[in-house]
Structure formats: structure tokens, C-alpha cells
Amino acid sequence: MKNGKKVLAETRKKRNRPVPGWALVLLAALAVAGAMLTGCGSGADNDGQNAAIAPSHLYMFAPLPTIPPATGVTALRVDLGRRLYYDKHLSENASISCNSCHDLAQYGVDPGKAVSLGHNQRPGGRNAPTVYNAGLQFVQFWDGRAADLAAQASGPMMNPVEMGMPGPEAVLASLRSNQNYVKQFKQAYPETKDPVTMANVTGAIAAFEARLLTPSRWDQYLAGDTNALTPAEKQGLRVYLKAGCAACHAGQDMGGNSYQKLGVYRNWPDQETDTGRMALTREARDRMYFKVPILRNVAETGPWFHNGQVKTLSEAVRLMGKYQTGEQLSDEEVNSIVSFLHALTGTIPQAYIEPPASDSAAASAAGKGRKTQTTAKEGE
User: Which of 95, 179, 323, 378 is such that its CA lies 20 to 30 A from the CA of 264?
Assistant: First the structure.
């Protein structure tokens, strides 16, 4: 509890702003969790290190929502969004799709890549974050420059480093040249005379991505099944709470609900290569502030951090302790937290993310030879 307070107090001091309401809720929740760490009362299923923290006391967290199957026009939009997500014709030279950098078969990231390569093999500016469970975040991108999934979807298409299209009209021209697409848009947006619009393109992709959820054993635990976690993972949860991790990584996504400064207790080593939100807002107070990444599937989404320079999850945990909570975590504590984080790995919806059948009528030549813009913000 002390560590959680210190993080938030430091944040307040640095930004000269009141601690927000969500933070106060977290502090209260952490106080209760801290009280439970020594025995957990009726929630304990074993003594000592194997004791389960009663799920009812973990109200700073929440299980993933249960979304009913899409029906009617919603199902048509989701199916259209899935097709668009995999379509390389939405990029210059038909070389890159959304899935190229956010591989749905690989937990929604570009596995092993610090940054992804765009349509001309140009490296992006930031590590490509996972799209799984991304719709639960309060903003999108590392710097929060997109308010929601639909706003996020258009950015990479026109980004000269990523998909490289010169503008929205180029995207729409490619889609309109494919009569199968035109028919599918009319079915998905029957109330619109000309449904092939950027709003509908990004809306369909967002409808698909909003359903990319990966329920895990952690959700079962929060729902009351204290046997869903192993004794080692339960102990990892105890260390996670004690170290103050939940001050930022809580909620349904275990993160993704606030901006925080990278380097609360000591300056982050690299203060120049990427200044975080400051590059977007031009405000000095936003220097090194980033959206807190989600921890769901974190064991599968490395390398870690905004620049993808941390190669192991253990090192990521150790750095977070040192720079964010002021904890010099021992090897045993690091390994314990990592054990818990593995319980956040969820189930990929294999049938749902199956790539659409190839379309022989897909537009192919419309994108060739166009001049790409050079002013878009680069990277994730």
C-alpha cells in the first residue's frame, strides 16, 4: 500500500495536478488488498504462501466482459471488418495488412520485433502493441492520440512508415474497384446510399477488433474459482500487490486506463529518443508520459515497452520495480510476479480470427506507383 501511495504522490508532485478519482479508488482497493495479504480470512485455500486472496477483495480488477455473438447487421459489419483487417490492398503496393504487424495468431503483435517494418521496409517508431482486448483501453496508441478503435484504424493506413497510402481517397478507390467489397458494404450499411466511406471502413474494423477478447484463468479466479491459479501464481499475485503494481495495472485489462510517467522514482535512461506524449502535446509536463500498457497476454507479447528494447519479461518486471514503484525486487520476487503474469495469458479465438477466403476479384493495381505523404506521425 505504501508503494502505491508513493507512486501516485510522486505523479501528483511532478504534474502539479490533483490525484484523479480513479487513483483514489485504486488506493482504497490496495489498502484492502494489503490487509488481505497476511491471511485472507475465509478466502484462503491453504496456509502461508499458497493462500488465495478472496476474489471479492480484488475489486480493483474485473473479469473480461462476456459479449453475445453478433447477429444481424452487426454480424455483417464484424465479418467485413475481419476481411479488411487481413487485406493488404489497404496499403501502398498491396504489401501490408493490419495483421502484418498485429498478427492475430501471435497474440496480436509482431513477435520478436522491437518495431515493425512498413511497406517499404522502413522501421516504425514504437513497438506494435497487441490488438487483443485493446478496445477496453481508454485511448489507443502509446501516446493516446486516437480516442477509440475506429480512430486508431485509419492511422496506420495513411502513415508513410506503415501502410503508406497517400490518403483516404486512395483507400476508398481500392475498395470501390472490387465489386465484392461494394456488395458487402451495402449489406453491412444498408441505410447508406454510398456506404464505401472511411467512417464505415474504420467502423467495421473497430467492430471486429472490439470482439478480440482473450479470457484466461485469471478471469475464472476473479469469478470465484480460487483453484484456477496455481499456488505459485497466487503467491505471485501477493507479491504483485505488495510491490504496488496494481496502482497502474488494474481494471479489466490490467492497465490501459491511464497515462503514467516512465521513470517515477528515477529518470528513465533514455530521455531523448522518445519523449512520449510530449511529442504529441508539445507540453513539457507530458515528457516521458505514456499510456500504461495492458498486461493481459503480456507473457506472449514481447519484446516489451514502447521501444521494444527489453527482451525478457523478468527484466521488464525488474525495471518496473526499480523505476516505477521504487522496489529493488529480488530474483525470487521477480520470478514470483512473472509466474502470476503467465496466468493472464488467455485463449485466442482461433475460429473467429480465421483469415477470410482469398478474393480473386480483389483490387490490385490501384495502389501502385502513388506518392506517399511524409507528414504522418510515425510508429505506434
Answer: 378
Euclidean distance between CA atoms 21 and 8, whole angstroms: 12
pLDDT in tens, 103-161: 999 999 999 999 999 988 999 999 999 999 999 999 999 999 999 999 999 999 999 99
Question: What total number of domains does the chain contain?
Answer: 2
Q: How many beta carbons lie within 10 A of that of residue 61, not counting itself?
A: 20
Contact of 103 with 111, CB cutoff 8 Å? yes
Residue 313 above 50 pLDDT? yes
Residues 128 and 155 in one domain: yes
pLDDT digits (tens, 9 = 90+) for 203-248: 999 999 999 999 999 999 999 999 999 999 999 999 999 999 999 9
Same domain, 7 and 22: yes
Q: What is the DSSP letter of 234?
A: H
* Parent domain of 239: 2-65+215-342
Q: In the structure, what pLDDT confidence band is assigned to residue 267 with cuts at 50, 70 and 90?
A: very high
Find the helix or strand (DSSP H, E) in which 290 lies: strand 289-291
Query: Is the distance from CB of 341 to CB of 347 less than 8 angstroms?
Result: no
**Same domain, yes or no, for 251 and 334?**
yes
Q: Please list the active-site residues.
A: 162
Does 348 fall in a domain? no
